[in-house]
Design brief:
By secondary structure, the protein is of the alpha/beta class. It is built from 17 helices and 7 strands.
Length: about 400
C-alpha cells in the first residue's frame, strides 16, 4: 500500500489516466490491431513501473514509453483516401467482394478483378457500387489476363497512379491428410495462392514503385500455424508469407510498404459447396494407390466432409475485422508488416512460433480433433502385428 501511494505511485496513476484517455480517443480512429498493441505497451509500462524503485526511474521509464508511444501513434494516422486507386483480386465472393464494396464506399477507386466476369458477384458489384469501381476479368493463373488487366488499369489511372494491390484470390483445395491430397491439388493451391499472387505482384510493381504505394497479400493463419489436413493450402500460404517478407525488405528502398494478412476462420465461400466436395472426394479416391486406399479406407476419406462442415459452421460470419485490417494496411502512414484478424488467430500464431514443438503438437492434436474416425488399418487391433 505504502509503495503504491508513494510519489511514484501517484505519478503512475496520473500518467496512466492521461495515457489511457489519449489512447481511447485514438482508438476510435485507428482500426486493426492497434488495440492489442496498445494494451501490450500499457501493460509493459505498468509492469516496468512496478519494478521501478524511485521517482527518478519512474520518470525515466515514463519518458521512454511516452516517446515510444508517440512514435507509434504518429504512424497510425490514416492518409486521406483522395480516390486512391486499388486493385483487388478474387472479388467474386468473400473478402474480395466485401473489400471491393467497403473500399468503394470509403471513396477509393477500385479495380475489382473477378474469376468470372459474368458471375453473380461481378453483377452485384456493378449494380451496387459507384462509378469509380470497375469490374474486370482476372484469372490470376492466366498470364494473358494479368497482362490485359495491367493494360486496362494503367490506361485508367494514367498519371494518378495505382496506390495498392491486394492479392486476395485464393483456393482451399480438399483438406485431408497430406498423403492423400492428390498432386493436382497441391499444384492448384500453389498455382493460385502463390504463383498467381507472385505474377500479379510482378506485373503491377512498376506502378506501385511509382506511387510509393502498398502491397497487401492475403495469406492465412494456416501459413504460420501447422494445421492438420492443410498440407497443400498451408504450404502455399507459407510460401506467400516468405515471398511478402522478402519483398518487404527489398521494396523499402522504393518506398513501397508490404503487409501480410493472416486471417483465422471466417465464413465465406472458401470451404466450398457439397457438389465441390463430391468432386474433390472423387479426385482423391481416383488418385490413390490400392495400398494407400486399403490402409486408410474409403470411410476415412469420406468422413473428411465433417471437417468442411465444421469449418463452415464454426467460422465467424462477420468479416469486418479483415476489412478493417486491410484498410489499415493501405491507409496508415506506417502499416504493420503482419495482421492477424479473427478470434485466436494472433495467440495461435504466437504460440506456434514460440512454444516447444512437443507442447504445440500435443495441444494442437487435442484442440483440432475434427472427427474420431481413424484410418482403417489403425482402427483394427492387429495393425502393430502386421507392421512387425
Ligand atoms: N475465409 C477464411 O476463413 C480465410 C482464412 C484465411 C485466409 N483466407 C484467404 O482469404 C482469401 C479470400 O478468401 P475468401 O475466404 O474470401 O474465400 P472465397 O469467398 O472463396 O473467395 C476467394 C475468391 O478467389 C476467387 N478465385 C479462385 N481462384 C481464382 C483465380 N485463379 N483467379 C482469380 N480469382 C480466383 C474465387 O472465385 P470463385 O468463387 O469463382 O471460385 C473467390 O471469389 C483467400 O486467399 C483465402 O485463402 C480466408
Amino acid at each position: 500500500m505504502g509503495t503504491f501511494f508513494s510519489d511514484p505511485g501517484w505519478l503512475c496513476l496520473t500518467v496512466t489516466a492521461l495515457l489511457g484517455g489519449t489512447i481511447l480517443c485514438k482508438l476510435k480512429t485507428s482500426p486493426g490491431q492497434v488495440g492489442r498493441k496498445v494494451v501490450c505497451l500499457v501493460g509493459l509500462w505498468g509492469g516496468a513501473y512496478l519494478i521501478s524503485l524511485s521517482l527518478f526511474w519512474g520518470l525515466v521509464l515514463f519518458s521512454l514509453l511516452y516517446f515510444v508511444m508517440y512514435t507509434y501513434f504518429s504512424g497510425q494516422e490514416l492518409l486521406p483516401v483522395d480516390q486512391k486507386a486499388v486493385l483487388i483480386t478474387g472479388c467474386d465472393s468473400g473478402f474480395g467482394y466485401g473489400l471491393a464494396r467497403y473500399l468503394d464506399e470509403l471513396g477509393f477507386t477500385v479495380f475489382a478483378g473477378v474469376l468470372d466476369e459474368q458471375g453473380s458477384g461481378a453483377e452485384e458489384l456493378r449494380r451496387t457500387c459507384s462509378k469509380h469501381l470497375s469490374v474486370f476479368q482476372l484469372n490470376i493463373t492466366n498470364t494473358q489476363e494479368i497482362k490485359e488487366a495491367y493494360r486496362k488499369v494503367k490506361e485508367k489511372v494514367q498519371n494518378k497512379g495505382l496506390w495498392a494491390v491486394i492479392n486476395n484470390a485464393g483456393v482451399l483445395g480438399f483438406p485431408t491428410d497430406g498423403e492423400l491430397i492428390p498432386m493436382t491439388e497441391y499444384k492448384r493451391c500453389m498455382a493460385v495462392n502463390f504463383f498467381g499472387a507472385v505474377e500479379v505482384t510482378k506485373e503491377f510493381l512498376p506502378l506501385l514503385r511509382k506511387s510509393k504505394g502498398r502491397l497487401v497479400n492475403i495469406s492465412s493463419m494456416a501459413g504460420g500455424v501447422p494445421m492438420q489436413k492443410m498440407a497443400a493450402y498451408g504450404s502455399s500460404k507459407a510460401a506467400l508469407i516468405m515471398f511478402s517478407s522478402i519483398l518487404r525488405q527489398e521494396l523499402s528502398k522504393w518506398g513501397v510498404k508490404v503487409s501480410v494478412i493472416q486471417p483465422g476462420g471466417f465464413r465465406t465461400n472458401i470451404s466450398g459447396t457439397s457438389q465441390m466436395w463430391e468432386k474433390l472426394e472423387r479426385t482423391v479416391l481416383d488418385n490413390l494407390s490400392p495400398e494407400v486406399q486399403a490402409d486408410y479406407g474409403q470411410d476415412y476419406i469420406l468422413s473428411e466432409r465433417s471437417f468442411l462442415r465444421l469449418m463452415k459452421t464454426s467460422s465467424d460470419p462477420d468479416i469486418s475485422p479483415v476489412l478493417l485490417d486491410v484498410r489499415h494496411a493501405i491507409s496508415a502512414q506506417s502499416p504493420f508488416a503482419f495482421y492477424a484478424p479473427g478470434k485466436l488467430s494472433y495467440p495461435w500464431l504466437c504460440f506456434a512460433s514460440f512454444s516447444p514443438t512437443g507442447i504445440f503438437d500435443y495441444l494442437s492434436r487435442k484442440i483440432y480433433t475434427y472427427s474420431k474416425k481413424m484410418p482403417r488399418v489403425l482402427s483394427t487391433s492387429n495393425w502393430e502385428d502386421e507392421a512387425m
